[in-house]
Amino acid sequence: AVVSTQSGHYGRGHKTTESRRTRHLEITSSVDQDDPVDSSSDESSSDDDDTGELLAELARIKRERANERQKKEQEKAAEAERIRKETILSGNPLLNSDSAAD
Questions:
Q1: 27 and 34 in contact (C-beta within 8 Å)?
Q2: More confident residue, 92 or 48
Q3: Residue 49 class from Cβ within 10 Å (0-12 exposed, 13-18 middle, 19+ buried)?
Q4: pLDDT digits (tens, 9 = 90+) for 41-53
């Protein structure tokens, strides 16, 4: 009877230890899988790479737009100069060959 009591007590103690060990392993594995420190460090370096690429792309787009604006302004200025010269030439009767013929 003493042996069965001891084995019964040992059995419960063994199950408790075993269940604690199992529970500890479950908690440890869930912490490892969901650990925000590990995943955020991986994501952080990936985010840093993405951020750098996006900033480079943004800078490239801004340069292109600035170049396009500058080109349009130069074309507009050239057109305004052409119109100004035409106006000056057509307003001068000495340079206007049609008016001299009259």
A1: no
A2: 48
A3: exposed
A4: 556 677 888 999 9
